[in-house]
Amino acid sequence: EITKLERNGLFVYESVPGTAVTNFKQDEKTVSFTVEGPEDAQITLELAEETEYEITIDGKSAGTMKTNLGGKLSMSVELEGTDAVEIKVEQR
Questions:
Q1: Residues 6 or more apart from 60 whose CB is under 8 A from it?
Q2: Does residue 20 contact residue 35 with C-beta atoms inside 8 Å?
Q3: Which of 25, 46, 48, 91: CA 20 to 30 A from 8?
Q4: Structural domain total, the chain
Q5: Alpha-carbon gap, residue 40 to 77, rounded angstroms
Q6: Domain holding 39: CATH number?
Q7: Is 11 exposed, middle or buried, given 0-12, 13-18 or 19+ CB atoms closer than 10 A?
Q8: Looking at residue 1, what is its pLDDT?
Q9: Rounded to two decimals, what is the model's pTM?
Q10: Which residue segment(s) compose the domain that 9 sits in?
Q11: How many whole angstroms separate alpha carbon 72 and alpha carbon 44?
Q12: 1-45: per-residue pLDDT in tens?
């Protein structure tokens, strides 16, 4: 089960297993959304290539990550036992 979001035919978000995504917002430097699901999920976002991002999960820093040549950034999110998790990904 996979959840995929696209904007103007371009990949924006994918999660495995599938999740419910709400309040998805994206501008030049920031992506934020709320995600919920029955179990932990692997989330992939399409962002700027080879760029460093600060990851915040439920208001707590989860560190920084750098996108690859294709601009993809993948992270694991613990969802089991929670109602919903707020995620913010901000360009450094």
A1: none
A2: yes
A3: 91
A4: 1
A5: 6
A6: 2.60.120
A7: middle
A8: 86
A9: 0.92
A10: 3-91
A11: 7
A12: 899 999 998 899 999 999 999 999 999 999 999 999 999 999 999
